[in-house]
Design brief:
By secondary structure, this protein is of the alpha/beta class. The chain is about 30% helix and about 15% strand. The strands form 6 sheets. The protein has a 5-stranded parallel beta sheet, with helices on one face. Helix 7 (about 110-125) packs across helix 16 (about 495-505). The model is unreliable at about 1-25 (pLDDT under 50).
Length: about 550
């Protein structure tokens, strides 16, 4: 801390242009230059959000004389360049950006997800409108099949480029798995509705209760639309393939969550068995607790192999969900047409399988039963390809190239119809497909703009940064309150004060944030400090002796010697 204050004091008192050639000391033929780099957070984000840009806008609010509201609006505009769903993603994304944050092994990664949430919520509270990239209206019309995150992302990016887009949705409401697969306690309906409404205000037409493929062939759309994007998702749950699972009270996780999220009355009884270890299993279990049942999650591996994200697992534990590990389902035991128990086989872990996780191996003779009133199979899900048979081969899902073109001319695809992945992955794929459609229709070269090299922590001077503990939200509602109010949002976000403090932890990896440290460290007067805020620092190379101090001492790794 003392070193930081000393350097900042020196920065304030030194005159611009003082110094000059040292006339001695260590020299080299290398000269400094600015090299923009990609921060790991942006690289780790499937959408490649400009996280650094948004957070630096917040961090530099006072330096630039902005109000907090002005900074939040600018930050919102940064996020919505790549995604129309910052408030949604700020809640449901498992934030891979934070895993690779260059500050992660210091006091913890920057709370990027929480900051995106508060930025997204600000946009909803202030009624901020999404911006078009052009006022031009192109003659071509585009059809999007599916109003999930991939389809709506594609529609958004096309609409802002000047295309007339019609979205065809099989369900009675928009959102896809955001609506029908994620419980309200994680994603409130008003947040989802608000961000979708903004997309419609760009001129996107949405036709609900229209199941393309079932109601009419998707190829019929070719007559009126220049391109088709298929984002039908994966709403079909996979069966356990064991005897007795045809019982009336055995659900797949997708149908169970869809029924509850649609507002249907679902009677689960007093004991629910959920089979599986992913996010859908956790969601089904926590929803069942809110319906008043005792719940058991039964998983064939251990907690360490569970693919569900850790905060959701911990939330389930807090709410009283029970776990039975190293157990494999054998049979559903029925009385009449209803399941009353399940037979299970205890297992131990053997060698890794294709997924890299250790394969469950049955333990001979270790068979037992658990009684139940409802069973939910949450082992996986897949698309319903009715009417889309020509888009996939055999049991494979839809295949696309790097530009999201399918094997059918003029047909593109993205989201869970390709493979099960994150919401942010679906958003990115819809955006990428929109860019391709635009390039094809405007007769431009189909290409992807490469990112700048990634900057890692070993190329930064992290010692410059003041120690700042990660800001975390205050605990949300207690368990009795959660269970009594099933749609109450569990996680409490950051306050505005906390958010602006947390944004200051961003180290602006790979891009100058105007700290002036290079100018302070240069003894040759070879670095010119700008007179106006926001203008770049410059090099007076004829004064430079090649000592490398500016590059070695640059906190964000923006300077290189060449």
């Amino acid at each position: 801390m003392a070193l930081v204050l000393k350097q900042k004091k020196k920065l304030q008192t030194r005159a611009v242009g003082s110094g000059g050639p040292r006339g001695g000391g260590e020299t080299s033929a290398l000269r400094p230059k600015h090299v923009l780099k990609t921060p790991p957070c942006t690289d780790g984000c499937p959408i490649h959000n400009d996280i650094r840009g948004a957070l630096q806008i917040m961090a530099q609010t006072e330096d630039y004389g902005r109000t907090r509201e002005e900074s939040l609006e600018l930050a919102w505009e940064r996020f919505t360049e790549t995604s129309p769903f910052p408030a949604v993603c700020g809640r449901v994304c498992p934030h891979p950006c934070e895993t690779v944050c260059n500050r992660a092994d210091m006091e913890g990664a920057v709370s990027i997800n929480q900051l995106e949430r508060i930025i997204g919520d600000f946009g909803l509270q202030k009624g901020l409108a999404l911006k078009k990239l052009t006022d031009e209206v192109h003659p071509e019309k585009i059809a999007v099949i599916g109003a999930g995150p991939a389809g709506l992302s594609c529609a958004y990016q096309l609409a802002r480029r000047g295309y007339r887009v019609t979205v065809f949705e099989a369900f009675s409401q928009t959102g896809g798995m955001l609506r029908y697969g994620i419980p309200r306690y994680r994603l409130p309906a008003d947040v989802l509705d608000g961000e979708i409404a903004r997309i419609e205000k760009l001129g996107v037409e949405i036709k609900l209760n229209t199941a393309v493929g079932r109601d009419f062939p998707y190829t019929d759309l070719r007559k009126d639309y220049a391109a088709i994007f298929v984002g039908i998702g994966a709403h079909k749950g996979k069966a356990l393939r064991i005897p007795g699972e045809d019982a009336a009270n055995v659900w797949t996780a997708t149908t169970f969550l869809n029924a509850v999220m649609s507002g249907k009355q679902v009677d689960v009884g007093n004991k629910v068995l959920v089979i599986g270890g992913g996010d859908a299993a956790i969601d089904a279990a926590r929803v069942s607790r809110r319906l008043g049942a005792e719940v058991w999650i039964v998983y064939r591996r251990t907690i360490h192999e569970m693919p569900a994200i850790e905060p959701e697992i911990e939330g389930a534990k807090e709410e009283g969900v029970n776990f039975e590990f190293l157990v494999m389902p054998l049979e559903v035991i029925k009385e009449g047409d209803r399941a009353v128990a399940m037979k299970f086989q205890r297992t131990e872990l053997g060698e890794p399988d294709a997924s890299g996780r250790r394969r469950p191996v049955p333990i001979e003779g270790a068979v037992f039963t658990l009684d139940c009133t409802t069973v939910v199979s949450a082992i996986s899900q897949e698309p319903d390809f009715e009417g889309f048979d020509d888009l996939h081969t055999g049991r494979d899902w839809v295949k696309v190239d790097e530009f999201h073109r399918t094997n059918q001319e003029g047909v593109y695809a993205g989201g869970d119809v390709l493979d099960l992945a994150l919401v942010t992955t679906a958003i990115a794929q819809g955006s990428r497909a929109a860019a391709t459609i635009h390039q094809v229709l405007r007769c431009e070269q189909v290409s992807i703009t490469p990112m700048a090299p990634i900057i890692h922590k070993d190329k930064m001077n992290r010692a410059w940064f003041e120690k700042k503990d990660r800001v975390v939200p205050q605990p949300g509602a207690d368990v009795p309150t959660r269970l009594a109010q099933p749609e109450l949002e569990v996680e409490k976000g950051l306050t505005q004060d906390e958010a602006f403090e947390e944004a200051k932890r961003c180290m602006s990896c790979g891009l100058c944030f105007e700290c002036g440290h290079c100018w302070t460290m240069c003894g040759d007067g070879a670095i010119i400090r700008p007179l106006n805020k926001g203008e770049p620092y410059a090099f007076k190379l004829e004064f430079c002796q090649g000592c490398k101090k500016c590059a070695e001492q640059c906190p964000c790794g923006y300077i290189e010697m060449a």
